[in-house]
Amino acid sequence: MAVDSSLSPLGPPACKKDAKALKFIEETTRNADPVQERVLAEILARNAETEYLKRYKLGGATDRETFKSKLPIISYEDLQPEIQRIANGDRSPILSAHPISEFLTSSGTSAGERKLMPTIQEELDRRQLLYSLLMPVMNLCVPGLDKGKGLYFLFVKSETKTPGGLLARPVLTSYYKSEHFKTRPYDPYNVYTSPNEAILCPDSFQSMYAQMLCGLLERKQVLRLGAVFASGLLRAIRFLQLNWQQLVNDIRTGTLNPKITEPNLKSCMDGILKPDPELADFVSKQCGDENWDGILTRIWPNTKYLDVIVTGAMAQYIPTLEYYSGGLPMACTMYASSECYFGLNLNPMCKPSEVSYTIMPNMAYFEFLPYDPNSASRGDSMTTRLVDLVNVEVGREYELVITTYAGLYRYRVGDILRVTGFHNSAPQFHFVRRKNVLLSIDSDKTDEAELQLAVENASKLLRSFNASVVEYTSYADTTTIPGHYVIYWELLVKDSANSETESVDSVMSQCCLAMEESLNSVYRQGRVADNSIGPLEIRVVKSGTFEDLMDYAISRGASINQYKVPRCVNFTPIMELLDSRVVSKHFSPSLPHWTPERRR
Asked: Can you give the residue ranges of the GH3 C-terminal domain (predicted)?
């Protein structure tokens, strides 16, 4: 049977399988409201006998009006007692009639620990379905992807068990370790250079080394380069900068770096690696050049695009990626979280600033809390009526609220989205930001309260010098690889005669470490285990700097009565003002404490 391009208004599909996927997208988005109605009814019907729904006396009702009138809008803290019971081994139907198969650890935190998101086995099928739609859409934009491979840097992270025996791990670790991924059928449009053994190796150095080595060995086959986040791809580039000589030696001699000791990975790589002096000379010449401008396209000349998330906090990495890639397009393909997979980008080759995700109505039941960034209440969920998926308004911002098959009901995800348009009757959203997040380098998310506590804890060390922190602000510095937190401190020193330079420098370095020790486990894991975040830096500024900052803000129209010191800055003139007043810089001297969390 010939491929029928009329099946998809998106464009002519590349193959029969793509035609089926594109048809599914069209039918699902065209019938967004009926699909949403069906999804909610399915969720409520199957979970009618759960403790949570019985508590709110739904009485088996599956209609929207009853659901909205009886169920509250909730946050993670509201669910913590139920989640803790499940984690401790209670197998009764508390949130879901289907057994909770594991917990997915969110990059957000509650009281400094990762959030635990319950999930059920069938959610893997739903995630796999969304993954299966990505390449059919990409094939519309970039032809010939079946003629080569993708070099993707994918990793598993540490997992723990709750007291009740359930696994707790990141959503991508869950997916990569599932049979859906490990035994995925061959698809010529979606072949990786990295073998499963490299992706699944728990040691981050060995995993990265093997994936980079495989990418170099097949450099002419690589048509797309990617990682989950932009920060991950930059980390891979930095890894190449630090390790290219050893990689070249492996390629030249055909013998594997002795640091690769994981048995499955070592056996796999021994079967792949053969001496290739010509390739070794080429890599050595490229990496030995001090100028790394366009290094990605020099080493992998057939690369058509970068597949990385560069929306939200990741947008800060765009200029650096453009430098290393020689201006390759950056594709953001999907929108997902630990709580739920939401949708995909139907125009993946658009500019990063124009990325919009189409919500797929079959993934969960979606509601939207109107969000006004200029309002003090910013969409009080107790008084504001939530808007259904198909009724959102173009140009308005909303906070995403979800009801999932796995037992989250009217749950506030914390993402702020702006409606940019519709595909058929399904809305398309631009990701604006995570609510309340000040600083983020990788998967870490630090809010204002957490930053304040860290400053308070660290500043206690200044007492021996009769000094204190008068004011502070911060920013995420992504000009370094990996990126790191920069905190500007203005100090009040009551007795400067007691301040020997060496002693002060030592104490300020300890202040950096004390701040890191106060930050959440996601941040500390990024520092210790993932090497995705660099040492925290404190920049001490001259006395009066923050008054100058206020004067600048007022000169630009801020009200002197309502002015508050911003706890995070990213506006270039403000950062230039702060940096022009810096009198000393200090870095964390060692790694903060981190061990895989043990669930109480």
From this structure: 450-571
H/E stretch holding 130:
helix 123-141
CA dihedral 254, 258, 259, 260 (to 10 degrees): 60
Identify the pLDDT of residue 3: 45
Which residues, other chains included, contact 245 with Cβ-Cβ below 8 Å and sequence gap of 6+? 284, 287
Q: Cβ distance 115 to 338 under 8 Å?
A: yes
- How far is the C-alpha of 366 from the C-alpha of 67, rounded, in Å? 13
User: How does pLDDT run across 429-488, given as a tens digit for each residue?
Assistant: 999 888 878 899 998 989 887 898 899 899 999 988 888 888 899 999 988 889 999 999
Q: Which residues, 6+ apart, have CB-to-CB distance to 66 below 8 Å? A: 58
φ and ψ at 328, to 5 degrees?
A: -60, 150
Q: Cα separation of 224 and 304, whole Å?
A: 6
- What letter represents residue 56's amino acid? Y
Mention every residue, 6+ apart, whose C-beta is less than 8 A from residue 162: 87, 88, 89, 103, 116, 168, 599
Cβ neighbours for 389, distance < 8 A, ≥ 6 positions apart: 32, 33, 36, 359, 361, 366, 367, 368, 426, 427
Supply 300's token pair.
């992998």
Give me the percent of the chain exceeding a pLDDT of 70.
92
Helix (H, G, I), strand (E, B) or coil at 136: helix
pLDDT digit string, tens, across residues 330-378: 999 999 999 999 999 999 999 998 999 999 999 999 999 999 765 544 4
Whether residue 160 contacts residue 599, with contact meaning beta carbons closer than 8 Å, is answered with yes
Contact between 173 and 156 (Cβ < 8 Å): yes
Q: Tell me how far apart the alpha carbons of residues 321 and 325 are, in angstroms, rounded to a whole number.
A: 6
What is the SS3 assignment for 108? strand
- Tokens 């197998």 label which residue? 91
Helix, strand, or coil here: 158? coil
What would the mean pLDDT of 385-389 be, rounded to a whole number? Answer: 95
Of the candidates 361, 358, 363, the one whose C-alpha atom is nearest the C-alpha of residue 344 is 358
Cα–Cα distance for residue pair 152/297, rounded to 1 Å: 15
How confident is the model at residue 211, as a pLDDT?
98
Residue 338 is given by DSSP the state S
**pLDDT number for residue 374:** 57
